[in-house]
Write a structure and sequence with these properties.
Radius of gyration: 25 Å
Distance between the termini: 33 Å
Strand content: 15-25%
Low-confidence stretches: 116-132, 389-401
Largest sheet: 5 strands, antiparallel
Shape: globular
Helix content: 25-40%
Number of strands: 16
């Protein structure tokens, strides 16, 4: 076992025991990284799977992408990875953060649970897929989502507060609705509010209600969402945007199960199940002073991490055909097949807007196109640009005065695709990743 790895282990309790355990991990594929995402251990099974040797990776950023803030609990993710031989593999990765002797996050360990050959599957997904898994409105066949479904089912049977974390458009409200539909409260209302959509005063009135005369224009009593959702579930979307003064009032509601309406002097009882959601790390918001730590722990009783669409690419064909069928039912246009070139571009796209963006693109295609085949020309302009052939790596395609500028320009031209940007510069993904980190390029 190398000296740098032993030094890294020394910061943990029972470091010797941990070292012995790690030596036993020859199967399944397994690795460990420090808090900066640098490889500290890469076992033989992972060497065989990826083609990358531990000796070449030690101290370098992991070629298997890692989240920047490892959760305290186990996180299951789906990651698309390119082996050293150039083969694209879909990995399901089980990651767990490790705390050092000082109680601070010091790294993570990860196991590879499932591997899928994406290159071999791409031809198969050019046709509609009928075997759709529909879990209370959430459509997925991704292994990364199986753990999410299990947590939803288990948490729904309790009254515990749930915090859903995921990127914008990834389906956080669908998760909240599934929890409500599976709970004993399913016969009562499910109400939702976006905490980023209203000013502090309006948000307070909408959540807690107000009495007549509480402020100018308050001509009658107004029941808030906590009152209107009685017996049911209240979904607080983008809860990280909640103003600090309202965070204190929400904390009281959770702890005391009662509140005063705006301008009122009579306590009202609360009987609702709370589900909150955010695209931000509440831990980081606490560190920056934007969110109360005590409220974070009250909301984060059951955390659910929702993978982005690019982390569950096997779901792209399922979702495409799901939304196509919904629009086909309107009898304006019926799409029966997708042109292979269009499908290829859709599969390779990085989907910053996730499932919401995918749905919007299908709406766009129905609006601008005609006929039974969805063609590349019917996709938004950014997809047609992405489909243009890339110049060869030997040709100087980017005019930049230094390497940092070249990397930034390549990422811009590839719409954020690391693989495409690395290809433009004639670099491997690992080299590109290392240089990107060196220059602090996000």
């Amino acid at each position: 076992m190398n000296e740098s790895f032993l030094t890294w282990l020394a910061q943990f309790n029972d470091a010797e025991l941990l070292a012995r355990l790690l030596e036993l991990f020859n199967d399944p594929p397994f690795y460990a990284v420090d808090k900066a995402g640098r490889v500290m251990f890469w076992n033989q099974a992972l060497e065989e799977l990826t083609g990358f040797m531990q000796s070449d990776l030690l101290g370098l950023p992991s070629p298997i992408s890692c989240p920047l803030d490892y959760p305290d609990e186990v996180l299951i993710r789906s990651v698309e990875f390119q082996s050293k031989a150039g083969k694209t593999i879909q990995l399901t990765v089980r990651t767990r953060g490790l705390l050092g002797l000082n109680g601070q996050l010091a790294g993570a360990v990860a196991w590879i649970l499932v591997e899928r050959d994406v290159d071999a599957e791409k031809q198969a997904v050019l046709k509609p897929v009928e075997s759709t898994q529909n879990f209370h409105g959430i459509i997925s066949r991704s292994p990364a989502m199986e753990a999410v479904f299990q947590i939803i089912q288990n948490a729904a049977q309790t009254e515990a507060t749930v915090l859903v974390r995921g990127e914008s458009g990834s389906g956080k409200e669908l998760v909240a609705r599934a929890i409500h539909d599976l709970s004993l409260r399913r016969q009562a209302p499910f109400l939702a509010i976006n905490c980023a959509a209203l000013s502090a005063n309006l948000l307070e009135s909408e959540l807690f209600g107000h009495v007549r005369g509480a402020f100018t224009g308050a001509i009658k009593d107004h029941p808030g969402l906590f009152q209107r959702a009685k017996g049911g579930t209240l979904f607080l979307d983008e809860v990280a945007e909640l103003p600090l003064e309202l965070q204190a009032k929400l904390l009281r509601v959770i702890q005391e199960r009662n509140y005063y309406p705006v301008g009122g002097d009579r306590l009202l009882d609360v009987d609702v199940r709370l589900v909150a959601a955010t695209h931000r790390s509440l831990r980081e918001e606490v560190k920056s002073g934007q969110f109360r730590e005590d409220l974070m722990y009250r909301l984060r009783v059951v955390p659910i991490f929702l993978p982005s669409l690019r982390e569950r690419r096997e779901d792209i064909p399922l979702l495409l055909w799901h939304f196509i069928r919904l629009h086909n039912a309107q009898n304006f246009r019926k799409i029966e097949k997708i042109d292979p070139q269009a499908m290829r571009v859709l599969l390779d796209y990085h989907w910053p807007g996730n499932i919401r963006e995918l749905h919007n693109i299908i709406e766009y295609a129905f609006a601008v196109g005609r006929g039974s085949c969805l063609r590349l020309s019917e996709l938004p302009p950014e997809f047609r640009e992405a489909a243009k052939p890339e110049p060869s790596a030997q040709t100087p395609v980017i005019a930049a005065k230094n390497e940092e500028d070249a990397i930034r320009e390549a990422l811009k031209r590839s719409s954020g695709s690391v693989e495409a940007a690395a290809g433009m510069l004639g670099m491997s993904r690992v080299t590109f990743w290392r240089k990107r980190k060196r220059y602090g390029i996000e």
